[in-house]
Amino acid sequence: MIAYVLRRILLLVPIALVVGTVAFLLLHVIPGDPAAVMLGPEATPEQVAALRERMGLDEPLAVQYPRWLARLARLDLGTSIFLDKPVTEAIRERVGPTVQLALYALLIAVAVGVPAGVVAALHQDRLLDRALMLFAISGTAIADFFLAILLILLFSVTLRWLPSGGYVEFSVDPVGHFQSMLLPAMALGLSIAGLPARLVRSTLLEVLREDYIRTATAKGLDLEAVAFRHALRNALLPAVTVLGYALGDLLGGAVVVETVFGLPGMGQLVVNSIARRDFPVIQGVVMVFAGIYLLCNLLVDVLYVYLDPRVRYAGG
Amino acid sequence: MTSTPDQSTGAEPRRGGTLRVALTGEPPNLDLHQTTDSIVLLVTGHMYETLFTWDERYEPVPLLAESHEVSDGGRRILVRLRQGVPFHNGEEMRAEDVIASIERWGRVVGLGQGLMAVTESLTAVDPYAVEFRLREPFGTFPTALSRALQGCAIYPKSVLDRSDDTRLAEFVGTGPYRFVEWLPDRHILLERFDGYANPPGETSGYAGHKGQYLDQLEFIPVPNEASRVAGLRSGNYHYLETISTDHYPTLKDDPAVAVDLLPPDAWLNIVLNLRSPITGDLQIRRAIQLALDHEPIMQAAFGEDFYELTPTLLPGAAAWYSDAGADRFNPRQPDEARRLLESSGYDGSPLRILTTQEIQQEYNAAVVFKQQLEQVGFTVDLQVYDGATLSDLRDDETAWEAYLATASFRPDPVLRNLTCSATGWWCTPEKDELLAQLQTESDFEKRVEIWAQVQERFYEEVPRLKIGDARRILVRSPKLHGVGPTELQPDFSNAWLEK
Amino acid sequence: MPAGRAGAVARARLRSRPRGWRATYVRDRRRAWYRVLLSSRVAILALAFLIGVVLTSVLAPLLAPADPQVANPAVRLRGPSAEHWLGTDDLGRDVLSRLLYGGRISLLVGTCVTVVAVAVGAVLGLLAGYFTWLDGLLMRLLDGVMAFPGVLLAIAIVVGLGPGVDTVVIALALVYTPVVARLIRSTTLVIKRMPYVEAARCVGLSNGAILWRYVLANSVSPLIVQATFIVAYAILAEASLSFLGASVNPEVPTWGNMLRDGQRLLSRAWWVALVPGTMLFLTVFALNILGDLLRDALDPRSQERREDAVVK
To answer: What is the protein's membrane topology class (chain A) (predicted)?
Structure first.
């Protein structure tokens, strides 16, 4: 078990290297000069050149790359050109809303998806099952920004129940915080709720056919009670793990949803930084996102090994 | 005349509250000297002040200056400063601060360079008086040093000593609101400056008394226009920086929103590259001028009721109105255009138009522009970029033939950059001479005449194509009152919020 | 599904048949997958819809009432009417025409991305699964690419290389190739241990022939299912890219950039956004349904499961 964990952690290193290299390569292909953007259209070429020199943008790529790798090893992600502060600081300021959004979305996905999957399994092939599965597929089929817009149109503009954007910190106003996060979390969460729903349904169905369940029903226990006690536990595991792997989609979806709702998270940071050609920030955020994804995968894999004895004894 | 919405309300202003303003994006910096981006003036107009500013008739009046005397045939200008005006950091504004600020502005800004070019010396004759000795008279002195995009904000010398020409060490000014914090992508926060030295006189335009009713001004970047509008309708924001006039029909019936339709004071123009082999040819530029039908372009950009077609290059400034060159404005002669194009030897190389979808009006106009050019025989390449790449490419004279821009309000023609160094590179000695005269001449009548000549040349030499004047809509919460003039960016110093 | 005695017999036969991958060789006792698929009304509906979308997109030049790119500002932002069945957008362009042409890009991007991702991914997966010495290297590389959130990776590539269908296809293919590679790798890992593969090797078949005739042939089913889903993901991803302004040239209509244009004016002219949004939704929805049903039809175990359900 420990060996497995250690092995997985070690494997992260070459992957991280690949991630870092790809990030570096990609961003030096982008045209556009951040210095010119920052100084505005009426800056003189001398001012632009001066800023470029300050930022070290003129060095050849072969020099910038090893420097980049060395800094990565120190977890130094460089300095943002536009924001004039270390990238890690810029990210730290913004990581809050994004992580919260992802977490709330996950919660909604589980809170909506798992019960839906259970109900669907219990009513297999009947109307409720088909309807719920239809909703599940609809969620994944709809573009999350389209869902976001429709939700705003309904709940903000027409009903005026919820704000259409902006971010209120929890420490400042807890109620306002949840009000401002509800719609974005719904837009993101509902669009992936289909995944756990379908997975719970199918694994529940599989488990329900197992012999030990048949024995229990034969003995006269109520099917629903049996399902909840024995089957659900087994069905939950793959559902949760699939959400862990879906984190990549969540983070990508957060980028778009944050734009629609004006949330000051990492997604918006990236989109703005792309427009501003703020290389260090783009590199940094992409690295952080990838890092989060890798870590989550590691956690999920370890959790899976821990929880599922079959895998553990097979050597992992 | 300034258009100051909602001055008629009789209610008593309430002190307190935080104003939430939704911006179209993030300002590149908070240094007024650096850039003509209007968003910078919107925010910093409350933080910094200039020596002069505009009253409700758009006449320059003293602000940080107390008075100024012109003598010696216009070659000596003595500016007396108001005394006891504190900066946000507690220091008092003195001559040395003014000199340091003007010198920096003179290095960075085109108009400032023009002033410094004729300045032999700039000295402090006493702690509250500054003296300019000029080689020749500079008639537009107070105008040049007035509130403007990229205006000459007065910063403390102690801050400038720690700054360089591209970056301020700190954001300190004398204005009614002081800088608190800037959390990029979250907000820029200003709070009331309690030590503010209120200028004498009644409120008039941007000049005179400032009520400072609001406790705080919060500027929030919301690049998504639909989110901005939705945010205003649901009460999240009190004021929107700018939105498309397409929202007018839905918003004017919404009780949660107060909409003001302003007279047209900005114009849509197409800047041509006079250093390109295609658009450098006057005959081709004339062909473009004849080919266009301005109405569909303006309709596409602004919608049916929100534009006007006038030839003046300074809409909104009635005193400067001129119809010089009007016979060449929107002539609509596509057959003639085709003929001119053919006989010019145009070889069919693509005419590149730069545009961005970040400014929807300009993009829409570009699409129609392209269509109309193609109808007379041009080959057109419409290149759509994001704002950053666009800014880059505009400086490259080999990269484009035309781009779309909106020229916003200027109360005086010297503040409109039509010099040789401006993008487009319209460099003719006679025109440059006229512009220099415009700066140095002080007699108003004479200047109107000079400007009319400039406008005449504008339509003859076609460095740009003025398409039409655009109306703006001003969208705010009905609980917000007292918003000042908006042509040079709204002034919230006298604004207040209902409970 | 057969019920009653005939059903009981059939079920008994099925339960006794061998499990696992060998089952794919025992074809005659299962119903052909296309029969299973076509027996479902939903599948027929989804298939018909998709064929309809493809046809109308391909025939767009014939069907579209107007040129999708010609701006006609005088009639901008008009609602659905006799002249413009789905209204006009803010440049006065006919929404129906743009919808038809927009489908071309969305479908083209979806198909091309899938073809590339499947082709490249299958090769990589086969190599990684079959040749152990390549596995480590390839997997690290693919894991590295997969660690990037797809949207961001695609944005960076498209912004870097400039807008255009080719760039979008490259970007999205890069995002989805690892998915295919992983799938093929895992099926390869299983298949290469099968006795018949060993037998083939003993007989002297070259690695290439083995890969082609045995490994790939047996991976086709899950590959088809996965491909269907990738088409759906790619179409949605392109819409996201268009929405963020990182896709094809905005003059060219795609459902994604129509959504982007329309979302600005949702309360003023709902049809501009709702029409492409709904179309996008329905297409992806149909693809998802098709994928699910294909999966059920092609996977022998789930067939068995379906038959068992009758017992309950």
So the answer is: Multi-pass membrane protein
Q: Kindly state whether residues A274 and A161 are assigned to the same domain.
A: yes
> Which residue of chain C is at minimal alpha-carbon distance from A246?
C149
Alpha-carbon distances, residue B196 vs B20, B87, B89, B90, B199 (angstroms): 22, 8, 11, 10, 9
Just give the CATH number of B266-470.
3.10.105.10
Q: Which chain B residues are within 8 Å of A36, Cβ to Cβ?
A: 388, 391-392, 395
Tell me the shortest Cα–Cα distance from B299 to chain C, in angstroms: 6
Q: Are residues A100 and A66 in the same domain?
A: no
**What are the residue boundaries of the structural domains of chain B, listed by start?**
14-47+175-262+473-499, 48-167, 266-470
CATH of B48-167 among 3.10.20.30, 3.10.129.10, 3.90.76.10, 1.10.150.670: 3.90.76.10
**Residue A219 belongs to some domain of the structure:** yes
- How many structural domains is chain A composed of? 2
What is the ipTM metric for this complex? 0.75
CA distance C109 to chain A (A): 16
CB contact under 8 A, C144 and A206: no
pLDDT score at B484: 86
Quick one: three-class SS letters along A129-169? HHHHHHHHHHHHHCCHHHHHHHHHHHHHHHCCCCCCCCCCC
Instruction: Return the structure tokens found at C102.
Output: 């927009």
Going by C-alpha positions, the residue among C166, C157, C146 that lies closest to residue C249 is C166
Could you tell me whether strands B380-385 and B258-261 are parallel, antiparallel, or unpaired per DSSP bridges? Answer: unpaired
Q: Is C266 on the interface with B (CB under 8 A)?
A: yes
d(CA C141, CA C241): 24
Q: Is A61 exposed, middle or buried (0-12, 13-18, 19+ CB in 10 A)?
A: exposed
Of B265-274, B435-444, B483-492, C262-271, minimum mean pLDDT range:
C262-271
Alpha-carbon distance of C137 to A303, in angstroms, equals 26
| Same domain as A268, residue A120 | yes
Element (H or E) spanning C12, and its range? helix C4-16
Predicted pLDDT of residue C234: 93
Q: Does domain C69-278 match CATH 3.30.980.10?
A: no
CATH class for the region spanning B14-47+175-262+473-499: alpha beta
Q: Looking at residue B331, what is its pLDDT?
A: 92
Average pLDDT of the residues of chain C: 80
Q: What is the pLDDT of residues C28-62, one digit of tens each?
A: 445 566 666 677 788 888 899 999 999 999 998 88
Residues spanned by the domain of A56: 2-73
Task: Answer whether B250 sits within 8 Å of C91, measured CB to CB.
Answer: no
Residue C5 confidence class, pLDDT cut points 50, 70, 90: very low
Residue type (1 letter), C305 = R
Question: How far apart are the C-alpha atoms of B341 and B352, rounded to whole Å?
Answer: 16
Q: How many CB atoms lie within 10 A of CB C118?
A: 24
The verdict on a CB contact (< 8 Å) between C73 and B300 is yes
Verify that A224 and A264 share a domain, yes or no. yes
Domain boundary among A73, A106, A133: A73
Q: What is the rounded radius of gyration, in angstroms, for the C-alpha atoms of chain C? A: 23
A-B interface: how many C-beta pairs under 8 angstroms? 120
Q: What is the pTM of this model?
A: 0.77
C129 vs C1 pLDDT, higher one: C129
Is A218 among the domain residues?
yes
Low-confidence ranges of chain A (pLDDT < 70): 1, 26-44, 47, 51, 54-58, 78, 81-84, 157, 210-232, 235-237, 240, 245, 274-280, 283, 307-316
Q: What is the pLDDT of residues B392-421, one digit of tens each?
A: 678 788 889 999 988 888 888 888 878 777
Residue A221 is predicted with a pLDDT of 60
Residue A185 forms part of a structural domain: yes
